[in-house]
Amino acid sequence: MTRIILVRHGQTEWNMQFKYQGHSEVDLTPTGVRQAERVAARLANEPICAVYSSDLGRALKTAEHIALSHHLSVTPVKGLREYHFGEWEGLTFQQISERWPEISVDFFKNPDSVRVPGGETFGEVKARAEASVRKLVDLHPDQTVVLVSHGGTIRTILCAALGLHLNRVWALRQDNTAVNIIEYYQETAIVTLVNDIHHLSGE
After folding, report:
1. What is the active site of this protein (predicted)?
2. For the domain 2-200, what is the CATH superfamily, name and number?
3. Which of 88, 107, 143, 193 has the most beta carbons within 10 angstroms of its beta carbon?
């Protein structure tokens, strides 16, 4: 059994402004850095053998805090990037709904079938993310591995593990530095934890 600990990155400026980030590079806020430190402390006693991350800076910086606690380096994995929001990146939902009223509604009602202008579909995100996860599972049999990624991408990985249709992707909450755990067996994936942020109590 391979145990995968999925962690969302810490808070960014665009998180605070409710802007869509996607593939854009947005730095962690001071709060986001503290969140990364707290999740690192929370995972310090886990038997982690490797730390992987999306190649976007906000995820890499979060992963570096976790890796430091285990004297490990972080390996970037492009397949763990966030959903590519195309022309929506840097905009708020209000701005998006004014410019793309029909697509913005459908994006939440039927996310599986929607491609945002210039961006991806959730099916494409799931395919690349799940391929990356499966490769790492094969690379680390009987070990515990951390993957730091993004809210949308983690949701697709959880949908795959739970056998959920991607139209249920928004039913899975993902807060900043949320911890999720999936155990991968030969033919089965068992989700043992979702969106746990108890390390942020008092934040």
Report:
1. 9 (tele-phosphohistidine intermediate), 82 (proton donor/acceptor)
2. Phosphoglycerate mutase-like (3.40.50.1240)
3. 88
